[in-house]
Amino acid sequence: MANLTRKILGIPFKNPIIIPSGPGGFGQEINRSLLSKIGAFTIKSITLEPKEGNPPPRLVDAGYGLINSIGLQNPGIKMFLSTIYPKLCPFPTKLFFSIAGNSPREFREMAAVLNGIEGFELLELNLSCPNVKDASTLLGADPEPVAEILKQVKEVFTTRPVSVKLPPEMPDLPSVIKACENNGADALTLFNCITGARFDITTGKPFLKRVYGGYSGPAVKPIYLRKIYLARQLTKLPIIGMGGAYEWEDIFEYLLAGADLVGFGLRTMVDLTEVAELPEKAQKWLFNHGYNTLSEYLQSVRREEIK
To answer: Is 190 labelled as part of a ligand binding site?
Structure first.
């Protein structure tokens, strides 16, 4: 079958499929043989101090997607590194470490600790969680805090690449991307969930305690493909694209839009076994259409675009 390997930021990936931060938790309860079939796995975002998360209900069905309001529940970086992380390593595929915070100081403190921790290939800065009341909701939409956080992180984290996870809703995408480029970002994770809400017509109240949460699912795919395409016109940084990817065909669509890796979030929550089967389906399609490698396919179709 066709070869799906990619090399991004000097890191070899067996295929471009990744599991974004959140849907797979910390990965400790997932079948490791399934994880071994995925290009990379991102742990659920860790904060400096423990977080209890939002009160239930935290999930609501929204037809062609799901609204979640987890609220960054996690044990804090100190407890995570001492109790959970040692059980994860060695991880069966490439591992990305995600951190979230409310200030440049918090990101710097966590990055300094992680600089000497082995076992993961990339540090992701979550500047875009849609499910918390504090400043981390807005950080990624403003070039000034993005720049300052990156400066602080890059001063103390020097051993591996850093990617910035941005929100889909922001007034000035070009300025934020420029802030990432000018302050040492090695990659961009585009994008976190768009915000959404649902209301119970019987009670008249919102389903979620916080009213709104992060909406994800196939319905947002065209919106996110456009956003990723626009971002690709603005930067040459590697893009970890996500938001709406669900079927094997989406691997190709997101790569054609400008992504280098493709995240499958909601599909992971529905059935990780199905996510693990996506690479083989993509390989068969490439082979049946006369391509031996993913790179060969991308070069071919892009040559046709140029013509």
So the answer is: no
Count of helices and strands (H, E) across the chain: 11, 14
Closest CA to 160 of 95, 103, 100: 95
Residue 246 counted as domain residue: yes
State if pTM tops 0.85.
yes
User: According to the annotation, is 131 in a ligand binding site?
Assistant: no
CA–CA distance, 94 with 77 (Å, rounded to integer): 20
Q: Is residue 142 part of a domain?
A: yes
Supply the mean pLDDT for the chain.
94
72 is an annotated ligand-binding site residue: yes
193 catalytic, yes or no?
Answer: no
Rounded alpha-carbon distances, angstroms, from residue 12 to 8, 163, 283: 7, 16, 17
pLDDT at 133 (0 to 100): 58
> Does residue 106 surpass a pLDDT of 70?
yes
Pairing state of beta strands 122-126 and 162-166? parallel
Query: Could you report the per-residue pLDDT of 187-219, keeping only the tens digit for each?
Result: 999 999 999 999 999 999 999 988 989 999 999
Is 154 assigned a ligand-binding role in the annotation?
A: no
Residue among 89, 129, 180, 193 flagged as catalytic: 129
* CATH number for the domain that contains residue 122: 3.20.20.70
Q: How many domains does the chain have?
A: 1
Range of the domain at 104: 6-306
Within a domain: 43: yes
